[in-house]
Amino acid sequence: MAPDRPAWHDVPVLTTVASPVLSRRSSFRLAGIAAVGVVGVSTVAACSNGDDAAPEPPDPLIAQEEAARQNAADARSAAALAPDRTAALTLIAAERTAHADALRTEVARLVGTYPDGSTPSADPTTTQSSVAPAPPPAVDALRAQLVGAQNSAAALARTQSDYRAGLLGSISAACAVHAGVLLR
User: Please, what is the angle between helix 86-111 and helix 60-78, to 10°?
Assistant: First the structure.
């Protein structure tokens, strides 16, 4: 031992230094590559050509519009059976036609425009039908139809939101007035 060094300097220190299998920098690189890979795989998996997806169900307002147009036609034809109620039946026909037009406008607003910029333009009032016209309904049958339309619009209003729910609620209230006040 050297006289100028203490004794404890000559004793070897036993330490086990194991080299890491993966350095810190390498682990960060691996984590980054894995994150990019997960994002890439999930992006590719999320993209599909749309063939396997089920088609969207039709807009529920379309059925309401068709019922409103049918109620309007029935109210106009029922005036032939009940000439004393012509004023009320004409008012019902006009309001149910306005309901159908408002529903058609809302469906068209939701559909928007086609990729070429055009809008759907089918006018349901100009469709041709080869079915023979039905006999005019009695006022009681029309009242039952309007009660059904009221209940249907109210039930559908509970499932919709915003403007659509308000529109359906308004239609339901109008049908209640038609059936309960105008046709009593």
Answer: 160
Below-70 pLDDT ranges, the chain: 1-3, 5-21, 44-56, 113-114, 117-133
* pTM flag (> 0.85): no
Per the CB < 8 A criterion, the answer to whether 167 and 106 are in contact is: yes
Res 71: pLDDT: 93
Alpha helices (H) in the chain, listed in sequence order:
24-46, 60-78, 86-111, 139-157, 162-177
| Domains of the chain by residue range | 60-112+136-182
26-31, long-range: CB < 8 A, 24+ apart:
none
- The Cα 129–Cα 137 span in angstroms is 19
Q: Measured in Å, how far apart are the chain's first and last C-alpha atoms? A: 123
* Rounded Cα–Cα distance for residues 169 and 163 (Å): 10
Question: What is the model's pLDDT at position 37?
Answer: 80
What's the token pair of residue 6? 């203490």
Q: DSSP characters for 103-157?
A: HHHHHHHHH---TTS------GGG----SPPPPPPPHHHHHHHHHHHHHHHHHHH
